[in-house]
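Annotators were shown the component list below and the corresponding predicted structure, then asked to write short factual statements about the assembly.
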Amino acid sequence: MVGAAEEAQLNRLESQVDNGGGGAWEYLCLVRKLKARRSEKVLKHGLSILNDPKARSRLGGEEWTLYEQVAIAAMDCQRLDVAKDCIATLSKKFTGSLRVGRLEAMLLEAKGAWADAEKAYARLLEDNPLDQAMHKRKVAMAKAQGNISAAVDFLNKYLEIFMADQDAWRELAEIYVSLQMYKQAAFCYEELILSQPTVPLYHLAYAEVLYTMGGLENLQAAKKYYASTINLTGGKNTRALYGVCLCSVAINQLTKGRNKEEESSELQSLAAEALLKDYKHRAPEKLPLLSTMLKNMKLIS
Amino acid sequence: MGVECRYEVAQAAYIKLVLHALKHRTSPVGGLLVGRLPEDNASTVQIADAIPLTHSQIGLLPSLELALIQVEEHFGAEGLSVVGYYHANERYDDAELGNAAKKIGDHIFRYFPRAALLLLDNKGLEELVKGKGRDLVVQLYTRDSSKSWHQAGSDGRSQLTIKEPSANVLLLDYISSEKWQNIVDFDDHLDDISKDWLNPNLFK
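Structure shown to annotators:
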C-alpha cells in the first residue's frame, strides 16, 4: 500500500521522467520498492534503459532486476513478445533458476494457458514448497479466471501456513468485502490490527466494514475505530472524520427513545468542526454543501 | 408491468463513466447517475450526468452514503436527482452484473422506481477502440416489481438511447488523448479534498 506522501513522490518522479527530465532508474526503483502497479510507464521507461547498451552497463548487477521488472510489466500490458525476450535473457544468465521458472509460468498465465501454468507452478512447488510468491500466484490465477471461491480457499490455506503475511490478510479481506461477506472481512482486519496495532489503515478499513454491517453494537465499535484512526493520523484523515459523523447519526437513529448511554457527544461535533475547517482551507467551493449536510445531521447549528 | 421504460443518456454522463473505467483498469469502478423524469415525457428517464464514485471497495457503505447525500444536495438545486448507478467489472471477460452493483441499484430503486443500472461492456469497448464497433458500450439493466434486474433489450421493453449521435466519436478522441487521467471520483476526493468529484473542467 502506498501512503499519500509516497504517492506524491512517485507521481513527481513519473512526470519528471515523462517530460524528459531523466531519473528513470530512480523511478523504477521507487515503483519496485512501493510495489506500485504502473506497468505502462515501467515498460516504456524500463525498455528505454534496456535498449540502450551504455545505460544498461551502467546498472551493473541491477540489470537483471530490471529485466525481471520489465518482463512483469510487459505481461501486464499484454506485450508478450517483450516479456518473452526479457525472460529468455534472464534464463540464459541464470539457468535453472527458480525465480526465472516463476516468470516463465507467469508468462503462461499471461497467455491464458491456465492448465499449463498450473502444471508449471505445481512442478516448481514440489521442489520449493515454501515459496510464498508461487502460492500467491495460484490465488491470482483463480481470481483471474473468475473462480473467487477457489481464490478464497487457496488464500485461507496459504494463511494457515504463512499467518504473518499482512498483504495476504488484506487481499482476503478485500475479496470478502467484494462478496459482501462482511463478518469474514472483519475477522481479517482484526488479525491485522492485532499484529500491527499502529497502522491507521487497518483501523479505518475495520471501521468501514463494521459500519456496513450495521446494528447498534457494530456502529458503536465502528465509531471507536474511526476515533482511533483519527488519533493515529493526527486528525487529518477525512474518511475517519466523516465516519465519526455518520456513526453518530446512525447510532442516534437506533437509540431514539431509549435511554442514551454515556455517549461522548463531543467527538462528533469536534469531527464536524475539523471537517469544516479543512474544507474552508482546501475545498472552499464545497463548503456550503458540507455545511448543509452537517446541519441536517444536527452536528452543527 | 407493461409500461415501456426508455432511458436517454447524455453524452457527458456516458463519456465520464467510460473514462472512469479506463483510468482504473485493474479494479472495478462504480458511480452514480443523476437525471430526471420530465413531466411532459414521463416515459423517458433522462440521465444527465454521471458522478464517479469509487475504484476500490465497492461493497462498503460509508462513502456511498456520503456521496448520495452530497450528490442529492448539489443536484437537487438543478431539479436533478439520483436515478441510477453505473458499474464496470474488474475482469475483462466478466459480463455479469454482480451482487454489489445490484444491491446499490436496489437501494436507489427505493427512492426512484425507474432506477437504471448501466454495466460497462468491456468487449464492446475493445471493439470500439479497435474501430470495429459502433454501439453504445454500456448495457442497461432495469428492475420490475419482481426484485430482479433484467437486461434491457432481451424483452424489448426497456431501451437506452443517447442524445448526441456522435458520442462514440468524441469518446474515441478522448481515449486517444488519454483524457481519463484527469477524472476524479469521490474516493479521490476523500483522499484529497481539493480534488473535485464534480469534474468541472474535464470537458473544457
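Statements collected:
1. The helical segments of chain B are 11-23, 61-76, 99-111, 122-130, 167-176, 186-191.
2. Chain B touches chain A through 28 residues (CB under 8 Å).
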